[in-house]
């Protein structure tokens, strides 16, 4: 299955590969990518599917977050909330998908790209890439639930440092603190299939039963409610003068680059 911005491929080994195909936009997320993610999450619940892998086209970027050239039109709190909450729902569905999920990070991951990766169970990163929750530099916070998800997956001091510093970190550092599960050097699909080999050899009911342990934990901790609060807080900041000025500066820079 293909769209202009994504592709979905059922692989013979028993997993689905979702690729953001916006290499020219550093695989930034637009509304079509959001729809594609919703579709692949549904497909991943079909019998016989044992894992979902999400990656980006090319070698430059896994995902550079939300496409500001699209989302810059969202100037009010309500407009921002509508978009943010939709993507947050998608990422929560990805987080609670009853099979293992992998972010195959073939290039840089920025902002919302890190939120997408955080929602996956595993993150495999190409050696030499950088990644970071840089939203703080844009006068906003994570708004798709990534901050709340990160608090579930990393020690609080590590998660707080990564979120509040809003910096890009090398793969080696992110591996050392537990955000990356593996750093690879060779072909990304080959390395991913090696990583998943033992998972894919198991009966899907075993994988689902184990994944349920974490899903139950997240539901009991009220994670979805915390994500909703995160979305609301980000939507308030979205309409701030500081963020609107950042967006205007970003768009002006992109227009200047085209001239």
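^ structure tokens above, recovered residues below v
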């Amino acid at each position: 299955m293909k769209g202009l911005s994504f592709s979905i491929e059922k692989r013979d080994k028993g997993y689905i590969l979702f690729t953001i195909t916006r290499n020219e936009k550093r695989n930034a997320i637009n509304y079509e990518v959001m729809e594609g993610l919703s579709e692949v999450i549904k497909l991943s619940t079909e019998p016989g599917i044992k894992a979902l892998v999400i990656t980006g086209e090319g070698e430059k970027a896994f995902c550079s977050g939300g496409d500001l050239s699209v989302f810059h039109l969202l100037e009010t709190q309500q407009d921002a909330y509508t978009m943010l909450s939709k993507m947050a729902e998608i990422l929560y569905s990805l987080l609670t998908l009853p099979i293992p999920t992998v972010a195959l990070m073939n290039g840089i991951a920025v902002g919302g790209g890190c939120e997408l990766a955080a929602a996956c169970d595993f993150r495999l990163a190409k050696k030499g890439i950088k990644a970071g929750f840089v939203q703080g530099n844009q006068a906003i916070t994570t708004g798709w639930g990534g901050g709340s998800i990160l608090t579930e997956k990393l020690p609080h001091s590590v998660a707080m440092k990564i979120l509040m510093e809003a910096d890009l970190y090398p793969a080696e550092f992110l591996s050392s603190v537990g955000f990356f599960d593996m750093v690879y050097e060779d072909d990304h699909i080959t390395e991913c299939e090696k990583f998943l080999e033992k998972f894919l050899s198991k009966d899907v009911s075993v994988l689902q039963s184990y994944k349920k342990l974490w899903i139950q934990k997240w539901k009991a901790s009220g994670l979805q409610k915390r994500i909703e609060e995160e979305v609301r807080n980000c939507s308030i900041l979205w309409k701030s003068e500081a963020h609107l000025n950042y967006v205007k500066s970003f768009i002006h820079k992109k227009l200047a680059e085209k001239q």
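Strands lie at 6-10, 15-20, 51-56, 61-63, 101-105, 108-110, 122-126, 130-132, 169-170, 182-184.
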